[in-house]
Write a structure and sequence with these properties.
With about 290 residues, the protein is α/β, with parallel strands linked by helices. It is built from nine helices and eleven strands. Mean pLDDT is about 90; it is low at about 285-293. The structure holds iron/sulfur cluster (SF4) (2 copies). One iron/sulfur cluster binds next to helix 2.
Length: about 290
């Protein structure tokens, strides 16, 4: 099955709006929201949960008070100040196990902790794999991998898996893009947009993944958009779409629908054009996987 991740070098470029529209346009597909720390694709998809599973994302020390002799050694050894009054604060505990080793009474053990849940849902646009983290829990490459696995386990061979990735270049992004046929980078015509685009292109080069670029709201700064196009040409990254600024995007978000469902939308029309280029040009196909583009 083919996989494409929609990513961006920075937040706020319109990545998820573009992703939701591509999801609507694609035929056989399964969708994975791998922006696990700030998921919002679900706001634009009408969905119903099929199942949810606990996600064990960290390890925490647990104290057996019956065994504790209150010697205080665990308090002294904990460099995260997670133990106070012989009680472990699980929000502060990093699971390093130093207290386990130092306790003369074997009163502390390490346990896996539920930090969230993975969810499989059915949306109007097909199966939808996503996750919910508990407050204060960290997203991680492991959770992204779990969300992607739930998507691929439930996809047919002919399905396209569309991944809404995290912004940036951290491990959650790496986990979102590895093994993809292509990534579509949603950029914007600003100085920071260009800079952050470069960082994602470096990442794609490093992993030998085809990088495609779309410039969102390009007409807000046509000069910078041209500069980004030239930059992409030098980096051998194909610009597959230029989406104009369109107030319908904001309206569609407030209505909870993809912008391509707004009949008069200029942005929606540009996204449709981009999708045709991506599919007719076979840019998301397995045989287009390339090293160094
Ligand atoms: S090191 Fe063990 S016995 Fe000592 S205070 Fe901590 S839990 Fe209690
Ligand atoms: S596992 Fe490490 S961080 Fe957690 S309470 Fe023990 S010493 Fe502190």
């Amino acid at each position: 099955m083919n996989q494409v991740a929609i990513v961006s070098g920075k937040g706020g470029t319109g990545k998820t709006s573009v992703c939701a529209s591509l999801v609507e346009l694609a035929g056989n597909k399964v969708v994975a929201d791998c922006d696990v720390e700030a998921p919002n694709l679900h706001l634009l998809l009408n969905f119903k949960e099929l199942w949810r599973r606990d996600y064990y994302g960290s390890k925490t020390a647990v104290m057996n008070r019956d065994k504790c002799r209150q010697c205080g050694k665990c308090i002294d050894v904990c460099r995260f100040q997670a133990i106070k009054n012989f009680t472990i604060n699980e929000l502060k505990c990093e699971g390093c196990a130093a207290c386990v080793y130092i306790c003369p009474e074997q009163a502390i053990r390490i346990e896996d902790t539920v930090t969230g849940e993975t969810v499989l849902s059915k949306s109007g646009a097909g199966l939808f794999s996503h996750a919910r983290l508990k407050i204060g829990a960290d997203g991680s490459g492991k959770l992204v991998t779990e969300v992607r696995k739930n998507a691929s386990d439930n996809a047919a061979e002919e399905d396209l898996i569309i991944i809404d990735g995290s912004p940036g270049i951290a491990c959650v992004v790496i986990a979102s893009i590895t093994g993809c046929n292509a990534i579509l980078i949603v950029s914007e015509p600003t100085l920071s947009g260009e800079h952050d685009l470069g960082r994602v292109l470096d990442l794609a080069d490093h992993f030998g993944i085809r990088a495609l670029v779309c410039i969102n709201k390009y007409d807000l700064n046509p000069e910078m958009a041209c500069k980004i196009e030239r930059y992409c040409k030098n980096r051998k990254a194909e610009v597959v779409g230029k989406i104009p600024f369109d107030r319908d995007v904001g309206t569609s978000i407030s209505r909870g629908i993809p912008v391509i469902n707004m009949p008069e939308s200029k942005a929606g029309a540009a996204i449709r054009e981009m999708w045709e280029l991506l599919t007719k040009g076979g840019l998301l196909n397995e045989n287009c996987h390339s090293n160094g583009r």
